[in-house]
């Protein structure tokens, strides 16, 4: 028998289901702060969450799906901070909102190192770049002279790729700089990307 949309919606909002998912998400994030993602198995998650493996698979198809869901709140918080940063037209002085993005990442540094590292999650990186690109597109849309097009989206993803690349370069460096210094270096790189102009023309 095929499950109806109403039944699926009820099942997905069942408090027991939500509690189990939170338990699994907390377990996988705890493990992610302790060791590389490649060494974490579904069995490890089940053991940490004190459930059986079948329970994990009832909610998530694989470890990467669970990891991405567990990081969704973190990504949403980061995207909200990115939304306050000028990423299209750069002011002369680095805005505090830009520094706050780096401070936020610094507060979860180990997790970001795991997720963005060579043994990290490609799905997480893709999701992060997509969220940043959405914010850049919003800023581009506010410029009356620009209309949404394939070139418009290419510009947004170019900017997002540069931004995510700077974050990765920072957190994966052997000597991780404090957030404010890292933000200052990243800001300098962005503003110099196009001949020391204070506006990025993607």
Write the layout of secondary structure elements.
Layout lengths: L4 H8 L2 H20 L7 H8 L3 H7 L3 H8 L1 H12 L12 H12 L1 H8 L5 H20 L8 H22 L7 H14 L10
Structure report:
It is a single chain. With 202 residues, this protein is mostly helical. The protein has 2 domains: 5-63, Arc Repressor Mutant, subunit A (Orthogonal Bundle); 71-192, Orthogonal Bundle (Tetracycline Repressor, domain 2). 69% of the residues lie in helices and 0% in strands. The protein has 11 helices and no strands. It has helices at 5-12, 15-34, 42-49, 53-59, 63-70, 72-83, 96-107, 109-116, 122-141, 150-171, 179-192. Helix 2 crosses helix 5 and helix 3 packs across helix 4. The longest helix has 22 residues, at 150-171. The model is unreliable at 1-10 and 194-202 (pLDDT under 50).
State which percent range the strand residues make up: under 5%
Query: Considering DSSP H and I runs of 4 or more, what fraction of the residues is helical?
Result: 55-70%
CATH topology of the largest domain: Tetracycline Repressor, domain 2
Radius of gyration: 20 Å
> What do the pLDDT scores average to?
86
Number of helices: 11
Q: What structural category arises from helix and sheet content? A: mainly alpha
Please give the alpha-carbon distance between the first and last residues.
52 Å
